[in-house]
Design brief:
Shape of chain A: globular
Helix content of chain B: 55-70%
Mean pLDDT of chain A: 90
Low-confidence stretches of chain B: 185-198, 209-214
Largest interface: A-B, 26 and 29 residues
Strand order of the largest sheet of chain B: 2-4-5-7-6
Low-confidence stretches of chain A: none
Structural class of chain A: alpha/beta
Strand order of the largest sheet of chain A: 2-1-3-4-5
Order of helices and strands of chain A: EHEHEHEHEH
Mean pLDDT of chain B: 76
Radius of gyration of chain A: 13 Å
Structural class of chain B: alpha+beta
Number of strands of chain B: 7
Strand content of chain B: 5-15%
Helix content of chain A: 40-55%
Strand content of chain A: 15-25%
Largest sheet of chain B: 5 strands, mixed
Order of helices and strands of chain B: HHHHHHHHHHHHEHEEHEEHHEE
Shape of chain B: elongated
Oligomer: heterodimer
Radius of gyration of chain B: 35 Å
Chain lengths: 132, 420
């Protein structure tokens, strides 16, 4: 599993990296713009990310916008459904409209920070990214 | 279906509880949009963009149902999403029966959204469960149909990529190589050849390393018990693999790729078990030298003159047997020497030979002396019976053979049952 973590908070980013590095290559980005660029580059190089974790409050481009851009990029490349990356949104606080918007924009999961590793692992298993 | 409700972190679950009605309301909105999609799909069953839109709507509902922690809603929308996805990827046209299943799913979801307690009713639950089963069956039928009709290698590669069996790059590599070499080869033939493990080379390498290192038992920090457990696990996997392979042969025939892959799996597991069996074995030289050390001090104390010659030191035996057989063998040799001393004067030099060999999977260790002792003296000796008991515990047996030339005691160990 190849993962991309987009998180501006250093500690959260490091913790996520520790969680996920056991399952494969794990890249990090501290803002939305870099994350989107890394995602697009990986797709172009035919080494796409299977998981993208996006913080909703990223600087430069927020998580929701990055998610929409990722799905737009996939649509342009005729990548649909499970052939695309699984996107997990990470938020410090939640609002109803934020949740609905994220799922409408085709995110695959939503997690409220802080969360436990087992919750993340359960998500990865459910998405078939790792075996249970 | 009860356990399949998606995963929501506890903090989030607490917050979204207050939004339950809003989420159900949003699902109704999505279902309204879905109606338009289904009408379009019925009008243009071959247009994939309608299926993409439908899939996205079901995906959103699946996500929201995760937040709602509603197992029935989650299971239903997820199963429908998967069927839509399969239709999009593998179906040339959306079948009318499949579109009806989408409509049915939409109907069930609407009933749940408008009447939130309905999923607890056994009748409704039963209807939904049946519907989910029917959709899974449709999905399987679709995949089977595609599998049987697709003869183009590229499409087979697509299925492998979809199933996660192979990465796209690997599939492309195989196809390229295939095109370059033999056009008549089946898909995957090169791949299977490349991935086959030759256990003989590995075993030989391990053996060479042992000889170089001069520390036969200490190459790997892995205990005999761990090796035994690993072998047991592999045996179980092998049995499962065999049964899957048999099923594959029955269902798809021996020329099918799945059958070929399961055959490779079974072959590789057997090879792996051989490697592990080799890791657990050591040459007898170590046991023989321990035995000589033990007896050397004993004979020195009792002022006995005994010469022990060994042959077949390279013969391999499982390490736990090699360790545990030293003491009974030493006692046996001591017993022979003691009898020899009784028959002769103290000054005589007793010659005892230890010879080991592997004979058709049976390890035979022969302890022989040329002194004319009677076999019955051994067989009825209390000490002999004790030693025979220990050998039996180790899984071996002792056979006494007396002849005019002397006495021979053979200890026989059958190799532990392995896969091959």
């Amino acid at each position: 599993m190849k993962a991309l973590i987009a998180e501006d908070d250093f500690i959260n980013r490091r913790v996520m990296q520790l969680f996920l590095s056991g399952y494969g290559k794990c890249d990090v980005a501290d803002n939305g713009k870099t994350a989107l660029m890394m995602y697009q580059d990986a797709q172009t190089d035919k080494k796409p990310y299977s998981l993208v974790c996006l913080d909703t409050g990223l600087p430069e481009l927020d998580g929701q916008t990055v998610l929409k851009e990722i799905r737009r990029f996939e649509k342009d490349k005729a990548i649909f459904g499970k052939d695309g990356a699984r996107v997990m949104m990470l938020a410090s606080d939640v609002r109803k409209d934020l949740l609905i918007e994220a799922f409408r924009a085709q995110c695959d999961g939503f997690m409220l920070k802080p969360f436990r590793k087992r919750e993340l692992v359960a998500f990865l298993e459910e998405q078939g990214l790792i075996e249970g | 279906m009860d356990g399949d409700r998606g995963n929501v972190s506890p903090g989030l679950a607490e917050i979204v509880n207050t939004y339950q009605a809003d989420f159900w309301g949003e699902i109704v909105n999505l279902l309204d949009q879905m109606n338009l999609c289904m009408v379009n799909l019925e009008a243009e069953p071959g247009n994939k963009s309608h299926l993409v839109a439908l899939c996205q709507l079901f995906h959103t509902i699946t996500g929201l149902s995760t937040l709602l922690q509603d197992a029935v809603c989650h299971g239903l929308s997820k199963a429908t999403e998967e069927l839509v996805e399969a239709s999009r990827k593998y179906g040339s046209n959306a079948e009318l029966s499949t579109i009806n299943q989408f409509i049915q799913s939409s109907g069930f979801l609407r009933r749940m959204a408008l009447n939130p307690g309905i999923s607890d009713e056994p009748r409704f639950f039963g209807e939904v469960s049946q519907h989910i089963q029917a959709m899974k069956q449709s999905q399987m039928d679709l995949l089977m149909m595609v599998r049987q009709t697709l003869e183009k290698e590229v499409r087979i590669g697509e299925i492998l990529i979809h199933d996660g069996t192979m990465a796209k790059n690997d599939v492309d590599d195989v196809l390229d190589k295939q095109k370059k070499s033999m056009g008549s080869m089946k898909f995957g033939e090169i791949l299977l050849k490349e991935k086959r493990v030759d256990a003989t080379d590995i075993i030989q390498a391990i053996r060479k390393q042992r000889i170089r290192s001069a520390s036969p038992g200490c190459l790997l920090a892995i205990s005999n018990e761990q090796i035994r457990l690993l072998r047991e696990l592999i045996k179980n996997l092998y049995a499962t693999g065999q049964s899957v392979h048999t099923d594959a042969l029955l269902r798809f025939g021996s020329k099918d790729q799945f059958s070929a892959r399961t055959a490779t799996l079974v072959h590789d597991l057997a090879a792996l078990e051989l490697v592990l069996a080799a890791l657990g074995r050591v040459p007898l030289s170590l046991a023989f030298s321990k035995l000589k050390q033990t007896l050397g001090s004993l004979f020195e104390e009792s002022r006995q003159f005994v010469r022990i010659d060994t042959t077949g030191d390279d013969t391999e035996v499982e390490k736990d047997i090699a360790d545990r057989m030293v003491q009974p063998m030493a006692e046996l040799v001591a017993l022979i020497a003691a009898h020899d001393r009784e028959l002769n004067s103290e000054e005589v030099l007793s010659l005892i030979e230890l010879a080991a060999a592997n004979e058709k999977g049976v390890l035979a260790i022969e302890i022989a002396t040329d002194s004319r002792q009677e076999a019955s003296k051994y067989i009825h000796h209390q000490k002999y019976e004790q030693i025979a008991g220990i050998i039996t515990q180790l899984g071996g047996k002792m056979v006494v053979d007396d002849s005019k030339q002397g006495i021979r005691i053979r200890i026989l160990f059958s190799a532990r049952e392995g896969i091959v």
